[in-house]
Amino acid sequence: MKQKPKSSIESEINQSCARLHNFKEPFAWSAICLFNSGKIVEGETQIYFKKEKPVLTDEEIISQLNKSGSDFLKKSNSVLPICMKLIVKLFEVNSKVENCLDPSLLRLNPFENGTDISIVKNLQNFHDTTRKIPFTSSYSHLYINLHSLDLHKCKAKRAVRNLSIKVKILDSDQDINAPGLKLIYNTHGLQGGDTLCDQYVTPVQYHNKRPDLYDSIKVKIPINLNSKYHVVFSYYHVICKGKGKKKKKKKKKK
User: How far is C-alpha 162 from the geometric centre of its chain's CA atoms?
Assistant: First the structure.
């Protein structure tokens, strides 16, 4: 087998990244115990990641963890050679927390400038409607939870199996391919990036016609909301290989 020159490999990598940069593929999963005897586990925890096929359902993952115990991921033969440390710290009720973001990702004072800081994000609480609690703030958010996708009966020229969904918000149907409105919270923008983005793209599960999805999309509802605003779902079959160059046919001389 002939080895490709370095320049050719770099060119293929650059072309693939330019074409597929919006798509990502999950390759591992993990689980940790946050509660022990009804109390939150404080301190440092090492998280091991297990390589697994993406066809596992939530019930199958829970069943594996229950059967194998808490050290299942660490002792498994398919554990990846990577480890992440998670530090859980509890704050007192009246303690002052710096570098904090509210549920709309707005900065709360005091907040330091810079990128090398630890950010604390406040989660949105959904109170029990039966309890009478005074509200001190107001948020207008839409939550879109994607659970599964089934296109195995889709009639197409080629097999539909590398599936992804693009979600965006539009306020007009004049151009369905127009960029979405910047109303979707950017989950990767907490360290200095844009808080809101114009679309959300679900990860691709390789060669899976019926993927289970775990995406939760948070949308900021504008104040001037009207009947023209709508959510657009676009379904994609991601082709990994680029189009090859067509070979020119040589004319035969008579």
Answer: 16
pLDDT at 182: 93
User: By three-state DSSP, how is residue 210 classified?
Assistant: coil
In sign, the C-alpha dihedral spanning 171, 172, 175, 177 is positive
The pTM for the full model equals: 0.72
Q: Do residues 237 and 154 touch, judged by C-beta distance below 8 A?
A: no
pLDDT of 158-189, one tens digit each?
A: 777 888 999 999 998 888 889 999 999 987 65
**DSSP sequence for 124-188:** PP---TTS---------EEEEEEEE---TT---SS---BEEEEEEEES-SS-TTSPPPS-EE-TT
Residue 200's CB is within 10 A of a number of other CB atoms, namely 22
Beta-ladder partners of 15: none
What average pLDDT does the segment 117-132 reach?
A: 77
**DSSP bridge partners of 197:** 184
Q: Which of 241, 238, 187, 240 is nearest to 214 (CA)?
A: 187
- Given a contact cutoff of 8 angstroms between Cβ atoms, the answer to whether 105 and 93 are in contact is no
Q: Dihedral of the CA atoms 45, 54, 190, 123 (nearest 10)?
A: -70
- Nearest CA-CA partner of 17 in 242, 202, 177: 242
For residue 137, what are its two tokens?
A: 């703030």
What order of strands is seen across the sheet that includes strand 230-237?
200-201, 163-170, 230-237
